[in-house]
Structures are given as C-alpha cells and as structure tokens.
Design brief:
Blueprint lengths: L3 H8 L10 E3 L5 E3 L14 E2 L2 E2 L8 E3 L3 H4 L6 H17 L10 H4 L13 H6 L19 H11 L10 H15 L10 H17 L1
Parallel strand pairs: 1-5
Antiparallel strand pairs: 1-2, 3-4
Helix pairs in contact: 6-8
InterPro entries: Amidase/PGRP_sf, Amidase_domain, NAMLAA_amidase_2, PGBD-like_sf, PGBDSf
Keywords: Cell wall biogenesis/degradation, Hydrolase
EC number: 3.5.1.28
Length: about 210
Amino acid sequence: MQSGQAAIDRLCDPEARVSSHYVVEEDGTVWNLVPEDRRAWHAGISFWRGHDTLNGRCIGVEIVNPGHEWGYRPFPPAQMAAVRDLCLGILSRHPIPPRNVVAHSDVAPDRKEDPGELFDWPWLATQGVGLWPDFPDFVVASSVDETKLRVDLAEIGYPVPSLTQGEAAFATLLRAFQRRWRPALVSGEADAETALRAAMLMRSVQNSG
C-alpha cells in the first residue's frame, strides 16, 4: 500500500480477507489488530520447514513501507527500533527459535517480496531477533554444486521447487533467499557467494534449533 493508513484500512476491511496481528508505522507507532491467540490472514499460500498454510501457526507483523511498487525506501531507525521491541515481546511470550523469524518473501517466494533487501536483518539479529551468520566480506569465485545448494535451502526451511518446475522457479526462490541473506545482489543466480551463504546459514540453523 502507498501509506500506513491505507494498509491499516485494508487490513481492517472484512471484504479484503487479509489481516495481520501487528502493523508498525514508519514513526514507530505499533498497532495491534488481531490478538496473538487468533489467526490472522497475512501469509496466504506459504511454506516453511515442512509446514504449509502458515497463517495458523505464526504471528504476522506488517511493516509500513511503500514497497517495490510504490517507491521502496529504507526503514527509519524509529521503525526498526519499534520492530525490535515488538519482536522481543513476542519472543518472550512464545518459544519461537531464531530460524523461524522469517520474512513473507521466505515463506511465499513466488508471491511476496517484503520486507525486502533494505530491511536491516543483521542489526535485528544483534538485538536478539532472528539470526545472522558471520558471512565473509569476500568470496573467491568457484563452481557451484546446485544439488547441494538445493539441499541446503531445503534444510534451512525454504520451499525448494522440484527440477521439473524449471529453472525460472528456482531463480525466483534464489531471489527470495538473496533478498533476505545477500541483499547487495538480488539476481536469482546460483553463484558462489549465494551457495556459500546458504551453506553457512544451513549450519547456523542446525545449531540454533
């Protein structure tokens, strides 16, 4: 949506059939639209770690931003601080492992791009929300084992498309992965750095529970 108010109006419209538990405005204002013990309709057709239809097993946080369609821009510090505080509160009430703090683009890569490559996941991880491995600053180019890359992505939790679904579907998934874990280059290409980050993240999530 083009504004926070427009987003809230839509999320509160019964005919829209879309909702979320929380909305975080750019100035840091937090709106609680649905109680945490009730289902909200924000993820839609989705998958993570062997589970689908995630609306019934997650808490949805919408973060106001015009998005890629209306002028995507960085998330202000006040908004990021509010997201942190909100998430820390949620995590204090629910036993959610770091690997299950996910983006909409993670669980529905063929339909969603949010919160996108400008969202500061590394900083959130330093604040105790989610995780962020110590990725290297430089990677020497090498060949990529696509089979291993697919296995790593599946182990992390992603809905990895089958080979019969084609290269376009896999490229869409890679863009979602890069948007979250390699934001400097969202290309959809299975290059050496993407493969290395997937392998490092796979090991991190195995250790984090």
